[in-house]
Amino acid sequence: MKTMLKTAAAFGLAAFIAAAGQTKAEPDYESHAGRLAVLIAELLRLQAIQTYDDVTGVELFERAWKITAARYGEQSPAALTDQRRMIIRDRNGPRRLDTEALLARQEGYIRDAFGDQSLDFADLLIIRCEIADDAAHYSEGVECWRRVLAIHETAPDADTSLAVTYDNLAADLLKLGKPAEALPYYERELAARLKNFAPTNQNVIHSRLQIAKTRCLAGDPETATQDWNEAIEDYVASVGPLHPWEAVYAAYFATCLLDANRVESARSIMQSHGKLDPPRRDMTEEDRLDVQKVWDRLAKIR
Fold first, then answer.
1. What is the per-residue pLDDT for 35?
2. Which domain holds residue 209?
3. Rg (CA), the chain
4. Same structural domain for residues 187 and 216?
5. Considering the domain boundaries, does residue 254 fall inside one?
6. Nearest CA to 230 among 253, 257, 260, 197?
7. What is the pTM (predicted TM-score) of this model?
8. How many domains does the chain have?
């Protein structure tokens, strides 16, 4: 391994990766060439994750996939995982791949090899769920996330996967105007996260804020306001003052309070957590406009 890393340093990482990507691995998995291929594929993945350029990211994931497929076979779990990473990154940017054809081919492989209750099948379904969400097909998304959930709920040590699935399912239910149905899933998300993280962890706080907002939407603004205030205080203590998402969270919750005719409560929350002056560093223009809309709405209410 030290020899391989020295080789990378001597020739330059980019050139080393380019050469290794064309290396033909020997059948012996413990051979020098075999270990070299594994290392290079991992380096390519790391570069793909770190780059902000989606086109470059897709190319790097594709090269990692080709190495993995050549070494273990196109239908191997490792190769299928790399291909899914490539698909996801392509959907974030260039969209040059035939996503449906690739997913259909993977679905056949995974059904035959592992079954439609496997974690590999769940990973494939997640891409389909996200495609439905991106197209605003939220009813389709709900059904899709329920299928993923059925797999994750029977998987061992799946707390993190469960939490993400609960969150996505609840979000789609909210988009369909069903906060009462969404609330139990956000509560399950929180319970799953608390198995591994403290109440002040940012992902846990996100769950707490989502529960408060959803409880407000479901018709209990008083309890929701108390829960939200406790969660946002922990959030500010965690990330520091004037974080852009403090104002965004405030705007989301204040909107619910305004819809429930809790004007003064909404105003208090915006004054405490939704101010735009002084400017919040790294706040996107889209987020700033969302927060400003709440202030504009409050200005019209006397």
1. 83
2. 199-302
3. 23
4. no
5. yes
6. 253
7. 0.81
8. 3
147 phi/psi in degrees, rounded to 5: -65, -40
Asked if residues 198 and 190 have their Cβ atoms less than 8 Å apart, the reply is no
Taking a C-beta distance cutoff of 8 angstroms, is the pair 83, 65 a contact? yes
Residues counted in the chain: 302
Residues 261-289, mean pLDDT to the nearest whole number: 96
Q: What pLDDT digit, counting tens, does each position of 66-86 carry?
A: 999 999 999 999 999 999 999
Residue 285 pLDDT level (bands cut at 50, 70, 90)? very high
State in Å, rounded, how far the first CA of the chain is from the last one. Answer: 71
C-beta separation of 232 from 273 below 8 A:
yes
Question: What's the farthest any 2 CA atoms get from each other in the chain?
Answer: 78
Residue 188, in any domain of the structure: yes
Q: Which amino acid is at 253?
A: F
Structural domain ending residue among the three candidates 88, 105, 140: 88
Burial of 261 (0-12, 13-18, 19+ CB in 10 A): exposed
> Which pLDDT tens digit goes with each residue over 100-158?
999 999 999 999 999 999 999 999 999 999 999 999 999 999 999 999 999 999 988 77
